[in-house]
Amino acid sequence: MDEKQKELLKTGAEVLVVAAAAERLQEWRTSRSVLGASDRVRVAIVGLRGSGAEHIRRFGALPNVEIAALCDIDDGVMREHLQTVQKMGFQPKTYVDIRKLLEDKSIDAVSINTPNHWHALMAIWACQAGKDVYVEKPCSHNLWEGGQLVRAAVKYNRIVQHGTQYRSNATVMQAIKEIQSGLLGDVYMSRGLCLKWRDTIGHTPASPIPSGVDYDLWTGPAPYLPFTKNRFHYNWHWFWNYGNGDVGNEGVHELDIARWGLGVGFPNKISAMGGHFMFDDDQQTPNTLHCSFQYDLPGGKHKMLEFEVRHWISNHEAGVGTRFDASIRLDETVQGGVGPLEGDYNTIGNIFYGSKGYLALDDFAGGYRTSMGKEQQPGPSAPQGPEDHFANFIACVISRKKEDLRAPIEEGHISSSLAHLANVSYRLGRTLTFDPETQLVKNDDEANHLLRDGDRGYRTPFVVPEEV
Prior knowledge:
Elements: H1 3-33, E1 41-46, H2 52-60, E2 65-71, H3 75-87, E3 93-95, H4 98-101, E4 109-112, H5 116-128, E5 132-135, H6 143-155, E6 160-162, H7 170-180, E7 187-195, H8 215-219, H9 251-262, E8 269-275, E9 288-296, E10 302-310, E11 347-354, E12 357-362, E13 368-372, E14 377-382, H10 389-399, H11 409-428, E15 432-435, E16 440-441, H12 445-450
Parallel strand pairs: 1-2, 1-4, 2-3, 4-5, 5-6, 7-10
Antiparallel strand pairs: 7-11, 8-9, 8-15, 9-10, 11-12, 12-13, 13-14, 15-16
Helix pairs in contact: 5-6, 6-11, 7-9, 9-11
C-alpha cells in the first residue's frame, strides 16, 4: 500500500468517527421530536454568567427541553439572559434564591453554573428536592462534600451529570478507545496540560456592593467578607474561599481525560509544588503548579499521572496548542497557517505515553495525533469531532438509565478530588499518602482537615449536611 492509499484510509477513518457521533445525536433528536409538549424536560439554569450562557444555548437547542426557570443573584445579569431566553421562545420564571426555585415541583432538572463553593450544596439540595442535576466542574469545593453529593445522588435516585463534557466528544472518545485497545502498548503515564496566558489580576480595594447584587447569597457557604471586584465575577477562581485555582478550573477537564485514558480512579500518592510567580496582586492560588499522582497496581507496578498549570510562556508540548495536519511534522511550519502558532495561543490537552508510542490530544485546537516507535512515525489521528454532553444528560433524564451517563457524578467526584488533593499537597508542602477506600489521607489529620474545608468551614444556613 503506497502513502497516498494510507492517507486516504486515514482520512476515511476520521470522517467515520465524526459522522458516527453526528448520526447518534440525530437519531436521539428524531426519536424525541415525535413526543408532545407535555413530555418536555423542564430545566432550571442556576448561575447565568460565563458558561451559563452556553448552558442556555445548549439546553435551549435540544428538542423537548423547556428552559422553565432562571436563577441568578445579579439583577443585571438576569435581565440580559432573560431577554436571550425569551427570544428563544421560552417564558421562564426568575429567581434570586435557589431554595425558592426548588420548591417548584414542575421543575424536572437543575443546571448549576455558579462559583465552585456553591456546586455541591446546590446539587445536594436539588437531589433532595427530587430534581435531576447537571453540575459544572468541579462538582465540589473540597473532597468531602463531593462524596456527600455522590451519596445524595444514590439516596434520592437522581440522574447527576458532571460538566466534564469532553467525555461526550466523538474525537476524545475515539482517542481513549485507541489507547485502551492497545495502540500505544503498555500505557504507563498520562500528562495533563493547562498552559494558559493569564495576566495579573492586580489589587482591588473594598468597595460598595453593586446595585442589584445579592452579595449575601453569592457568598453562601463561604465567610462573609467586604466586597471587592477581584473576589467577584470570574476572579473568584483565584481565592481559596470560593475557587480552587486553575487546577480546579480548566484543569479538571484535563485531569479527567488523563485519568480516563490511564484507566485509574483515586491515586495512592499525591505530590504538588509550585507558586504564585511574577505578579504582585490579590491572587491566593498558585499560577504555576506541578502535580504528580501515583497509582499502585498489583504485582508492585505503578502508573503515573502528571498535571501542570503554567500561567505564561508555553512551548506547545507535543504539538498541543498548534493547528495541525497529520501529514506535516510537529516542527514544520508551512504556508496557510498550519503548524506551530506564535503568540498567546493556549496549550490545553493531554499526552499519553506507552511502550509503542505516544498520543497527543488537543482540547482547544481540536483532534488527536499519534507518534509511533523510536522514529516517531505518524500514526492514527483524527480532527475535532462533535460533542453531545447536554443531550446525553437529557436522554438519561428521560430514560432513567444512569448507566448511560457519560460523566456520572461518581467519575466527576474522583476527577475533582485530584484537584483538591493536589491543592492540599501544595498548601502543606508535603506528599500525601491516600487511601482510596476511605477517601482519607493516611496519618495526616491536617490534610484531612483541609479536605473538609476545615480552614474555611460553612456559614449558617449554607451548610453541606453530614447526613444527606
